[in-house]
Task: structure prediction
Amino acid sequence: MEVERAHGVRYVKFIGDGDSSVYLTLLQNVPGWGHAIKKLECANHACKRYRGALERLVQDNPSYKGSGRLTLKMRKRLVSSARAAIRMRSQESDVRTALAALKHDLQSGPRHCFGMHQHCSTDFCKTAREKQQHSMPSSSSSSMNTPEIRDEADPDNEDLDIGIAI
Result:
C-alpha cells in the first residue's frame, strides 16, 4: 500500500463509524497482513445513531410524545443509559462476557429508564442493587462493607460527548 512504502507505517487498528465501507476496502486492498486489521467502533457514533433513531420514532409517531412517554428528557436519558453501558462494559477484560453483558444492558436500558428494574444488572442499576441487598438473608452483613457504586444511568448524567472506542 502507498502509506507503507512512503512512510513505513502499517494500519493495525482503526476507528470506524459502524456504517462505513472503509474496513471492507482495507481488507480487500491491503497485502497479506491486512487480515489482522482490527476495527474499533466509535461509541459517539453508536449513541448518535441511537439518538437519531429515537428522534425519528417520535417524529413519525406523534402519539409517542407527552408526559410518561418519549419526551426530550427521556430520549436524553435513554442515550445516556446506553453510553453508560458502553463505558462500563468497555473496561471489562473478558470481551465475550462484556459483549453479552452490554447486549443485556442495552436491551434492559429502556425498561430501566421507564422505572422497570426487574431485568437490570445489579452492577448497572442502583435500584436493582438495593432490591438484591434487601432480598439477602439478614445474617449477611457484607452489604455494610460494600463501597458506594454510582448509578451510571442517572438521568442528570450529561456525559453525551465522551468518546469511547470499543
Observations:
- The longest helix spans residues 72-90.
- The longest strand covers residues 13-16.
